Amino acid sequence: MIDASVLTIVKGRRPHLENQLRGLEQSIVSPKEWVIVGMDEDPPQLESAHFPIRLGRVNSSGQGEIPLAQARNRAASLASSPLLVFLDVDCIPSPGLMETFGRVIADSPQLWMGTIGYLPPDAASRDWTFDDLAGKAIEHPLLPKLDGADCLSSDRYELFWSLNFAIPAELFSRIGGFDENYAGYGAEDTDFAFMAREQGIPFGFAAARAYHQHHAVCKPPLNHFRSILINAERFRQKWGLWPMEKWLRQFDELGLIDFNANSNELAILKDPTESQIREATVNTPAGF
């Protein structure tokens, strides 16, 4: 056992969560506990003979956006271990994930993002094995390759994604957790990384591998249109630059907003229609 808490936030996605449990139970070293926080609903009641499971819940404000930042902070507040390992519900941890995070944190206590193998549809929908997942997973083209190394230090804080990462609980507290002023989807994880940089906390990539379970995605994410715009403005006011520029330019090209990356203003022209959202929803093999 490693003195680490695995933290997962969830709304729906029970099959994904059950696959994550199956992965955790095959870890070379087990976590001390698994903390699951439900968003706007109670999390599923799961059991494990390998570690205790602690449950929590948070509710949205009146804005109707799932409270991602609040849920992650709630999970951290429930954790009892000095090491926090955050896994999104659609991630299956490899057997070596916990051991690798524990080793690199012991050598260098900082913010570490794990590696991700993206799975095609149905790869984890049946009686999968880790050999199956490893053979089917593909890499995200934007993330660095570790080439067999345990870890790689980086100053590319903008590449931090919160789906698979570890940080000492003390440093999480120093950062202040995730900024709960972000409403729903978009930019809250980049903001977290920028806060780490502002606090002088080093960042890097660790060979702590998780497998991302496939699900349909909206490209661009029109299904999160309003929250992305609200969060983009929040981020710009805080850091002086626009996040998610690719998505904002795509929204502009669709005539939904008036956006210029060199401007301090973003104007909403209209919301996407339901048909536009349906047409933008794709089942690309890796989900990106």
Q: What's the story with the biggest beta sheet? A: 9 strands, mixed
Report Rg: 19 Å
Average pLDDT: 94
Distance between the termini: 34 Å
Low-confidence stretches: none
For the record, the count of structural domains works out to 2
What's the CATH H-level homologous superfamily of the largest domain? Spore Coat Polysaccharide Biosynthesis Protein SpsA, Chain A
Q: What is the CATH topology classification name of the largest domain?
A: Spore Coat Polysaccharide Biosynthesis Protein SpsA, Chain A
Shape: globular
CATH architecture level-2 label of the largest domain: Alpha-Beta Complex
Q: How does the helix and strand content classify structurally?
A: alpha/beta
How much helicity do the residues have? 25-40%
The count of β-strands is 13
Number of helices: 9
CATH class of the largest domain: Alpha Beta
Order of helices and strands: EHEEHEEHEHEEHHEEHHEEHE
How would you describe this structure to a colleague?
- There is one protein chain.
- By secondary structure, this protein is an alpha/beta fold.
- Helices cover 31% and strands 24% of the residues.
- It folds into two domains: 2-212, Spore Coat Polysaccharide Biosynthesis Protein SpsA, Chain A (Alpha-Beta Complex); 217-282, no CATH class.
- The protein is built from nine helices and 13 strands.
- The strands form three sheets. Strands 1, 2, 3, 4, 5, 6, 7, 8 and 9 form a nine-stranded mixed beta sheet that branches. The protein has a two-stranded antiparallel ribbon with strand order 10-13. Strands 11-12 form a two-stranded antiparallel ribbon.
